[in-house]
Specification:
463 residues, alpha/beta, phosphoenolpyruvate carboxylase, domain 3, Rossmann fold, 4 domains, five-stranded antiparallel β-sheet, 17 strands, 48% helix
Length: 463
């Protein structure tokens, strides 16, 4: 795996630069968790070198996982895109603002630049294709060659891998020879870097699958439950294993009498081991069901009543704890926010107001002096009362802070808490990924007050 070896060489050079010593395998989920923890700890300690190195290591680890799952060229595209974004962060919009580039960032940029040509060379050589992809190709060709009316689903872990696997199948002439007509179906939630699918887009793909225009779906776990997918005669789980329930649901998609269920392992995924555990759990589940069937109706109903009462009491206790936590909400004045990358103080909780119980905006005029604004077409989102169409970033270091929100005709910087280190009464918190993680009640946004101020300012300018 020379392509993967180059990525590992880059990662080890970063380990030396940041004096880091991971104890888990590169290209594994455990390594990703380690890198995330290092980034959070470094952000809290204001260690810029380790923080930025940990972020790059997490991305290289993802590239390594991708190269073990999909094409090397797809993994390289992912890394290219990440580096282009990082370089863009350090480029001012108008050329006038000097954005700080640290020696560590220069080292990281040069490291990728020096190795890029080598990665490109290996990615173009088909003999270095990963074994898992070869096994998947063989299994797909076997299914479509041995069945008159083959129709199947490939389950994969991420949206990115679902899209790129579908593209790989479309671009490979061997699949066209056996009349494979692929498409992908992914989730609709907006929780990853990959653009989600709308309900209408999902419906359109499934309609084509029913009609036979598509005979192979590449899907994330959204297709295991919650989507009405027609019967198919083979299911492949590619580098994906969750629990025994998901395994049974995936098998259930193959409803034909001669349907098959195949698991293709991916390097460092642990899929084969988990699938063995799931099969054992499925067997135990069957025994438990048979035992329940042997109970009398009275004994069964009594036991069910006990379980239901226990569940009700546990939920009541959780509600009490949630109320107690709400009572302990800190005052906004006790909260400070600093840039996650350069640790520059940004604002206080008193400067933040909340729109529609969801969007946290900074309404102060002094805050506008701290950030630069960039257009971002991929971010564009339009709803009834608001839209977002630009990114705001730290004027000093280029770290993204959030987006520009146009709410009923007025522009406001909308903050994303994951981009900051939060300080509550002197205690630093660096693992907040969403605003609900913070026990803070921000002031509600007053539209009339701000609209009046804006109108007054416009009148004065015209006068």
């Amino acid at each position: 795996d020379p392509f993967g070896d180059v990525i590992k060489t880059i990662m080890n050079a970063i380990h030396n630069e940041a004096k880091l010593s991971p104890i888990c395998d590169l290209g594994s989920q455990n390594y990703e968790q380690w890198a995330v923890q290092k980034e959070r700890q470094a952000a809290k300690e204001e260690d810029k070198t380790v923080r930025v190195c940990a972020e790059f290591l997490r991305r290289y680890n993802e590239g390594l996982i991708l190269s073990n799952t999909i094409r090397m060229s797809d993994a390289l595209s992912y890394l290219n895109k990440f580096h282009e974004e990082q370089v863009k962060k350090k480029t001012s919009v108008d050329g006038e603002q000097n954005i700080q580039i640290t020696d560590t960032e220069r080292f990281l940029f040069k490291l990728f630049k020096d190795k890029k040509e080598e990665l490109e060379t290996f990615s173009k050589n088909p003999k270095y294709e990963n074994d898992s992809l070869s096994k998947l190709r063989e299994q797909i060709l076997r299914e479509f060659s041995s069945r008159g009316q083959a129709r199947g689903i490939i389950f994969t872990k991420t949206r990115h891998s679902a899209i790129t696997l579908s593209q790989w199948i479309q671009e490979n002439p061997k699949f066209a020879d056996v009349e494979v007509k692929p498409s992908h179906v992914i989730g609709g939630g907006d929780q990853s870097d990959t653009k989600p699918m709308t309900a209408a887009e999902q419906k359109d793909v499934l309609k084509k699958f029913r009609a036979g225009e598509v005979n192979l779906l590449v899907a994330t776990t959204v297709a295991e439950e919650g989507l009405d997918i027609p019967a198919c005669n083979f299911v492949i789980r590619y580098g994906l294993s969750t629990n025994e329930i998901a395994m049974i649901q995936a098998k259930g998609r193959g409803r034909a009498d001669d349907s098959s269920y195949t698991v293709v392992d991916v390097k460092n995924s642990g899929v084969a081991e988990r699938e063995c555990v799931n099969e054992y759990r499925e067997e135990m589940m069957g025994k438990a069901i048979n035992k329940i069937k042997g109970q009398s109706r009275e004994a069964y109903q009594k036991q069910m009543m006990e379980f239901q009462l226990q569940a009700i009491m546990e939920e009541r206790m959780r509600q009490v704890k949630r109320k107690q936590k709400a009572i302990k909400d800190e005052k906004p004045s006790h909260v400070k926010f600093s840039c996650r990358n350069c640790a520059k103080p940004v604002c206080s909780g008193e400067d933040i107001q909340i729109i529609e119980n969801m969007h946290r905006v900074n309404v102060t005029t002094q805050f506008k002096e701290l950030f630069i604004q960039r257009e971002n077409a991929t971010l564009q989102e339009r709803l009834l009362d608001y839209e977002t169409n630009a990114v705001i970033a730290c004027k000093d270091c280029g770290q993204p802070w959030g987006s520009v929100m146009v709410y009923r005709g007025m522009d406001f910087p909308c903050l994303h808490v994951k981009n900051f280190v939060v300080n509550i009464n002197g205690k630093k918190i660096s693992n907040c990924t969403k605003w609900s993680d913070l026990p803070i009640r921000f002031t509600a946004f007053d539209y009339i007050e701000h609209a009046s101020m804006m109108a007054q300012g416009s009148d004065e300018e015209m006068g």
